[in-house]
Amino acid sequence: QVQLVESGGGLVQAGDSLRLSCAASGRTASSSTMGWLRQAPGKEREFVAAISWSGNVRYYADSVKGRFTISRDNAKNTVYLQMNSLKPEDTAVYYCAAKQNLYDTDQPDRYEYWGQGTQVTVSS
After folding, report:
1. Cβ atoms < 10 Å from Cβ of 76
2. Average pLDDT of the segment spanning 46-65
3. Which residues are CB-contacts of 105 (< 8 A; sequence separation ≥ 6)?
4. CA dist 26 to 22, 47, 48, Å?
5. Rounded mean pLDDT, 23-38
6. Percentage of residues in the chain with pLDDT exceeding 70?
7. Mean pLDDT throughout 104-124?
8. Most distant pair of Cα atoms in the chain: their distance
9. Are the C-beta atoms of 3 and 114 separated by less than 8 Å?
10. Average pLDDT, the chain
11. What does 38-103 look like in DSSP terms, one character per residue?
C-alpha cells in the first residue's frame, strides 16, 4: 500500500510558476514509479509527467515539455512537479499517483495508488 498526499496548488496568473509536492508513505513508496496526472473540468484525466524510482528516467506529456519538471527525493519520500510558464489551459486538479513499473506510464488507468488531488488555477 502507498498513501499519497499532494500540496502546493493555488491560483496564479499566466506566466507564473508553482511547485507541487506529493508526500508518499507506505512500504513500497520509495521503489514506485511516480506520476503526476491532471483533470480539467469536463475532460478526461490525462498524463502530465512520470519518474522512475531512481529518478533517472522521466517522461513528459508534449503539452508540458520544457515547462514542467518532475523530480523526487527518496530520502524524504516526496515527489515534486515544478511548473513554469503556466498557461490557462494548465488549469486542472493535479493528482499524484504511483505504480510498480515503468510500463504505460502515460495511461491513467495503470496507476494503482492515487492522492486526493490539488487544484491549480491559472488566470489569463
Report:
1. 12
2. 97
3. 33, 35, 47, 50, 59, 99
4. 13, 23, 23
5. 89
6. 100
7. 97
8. 42
9. no
10. 95
11. EE-TTS--EEEEEE-TTS--EEE-TTTTTTEEEEEETTTTEEEEEE-S--GGG-EEEEEEEESSST
Q: Quick one: pLDDT at residue 71?
A: 97
CB 105 within 8 A of CB 35: yes
Enter the C-alpha cell of residue 27: 512500504
Cell of 19: 511547485
Q: Which three cell numbers stand for residue 111?
A: 496507476
pLDDT digits (tens, 9 = 90+) for 68-88: 999 999 999 999 999 999 999
Instruction: State the amino acid at position 29 in one-letter form.
Output: A
Beta bridge partners of 33: 99
Q: Locate cell 511547485: which residue?
A: 19
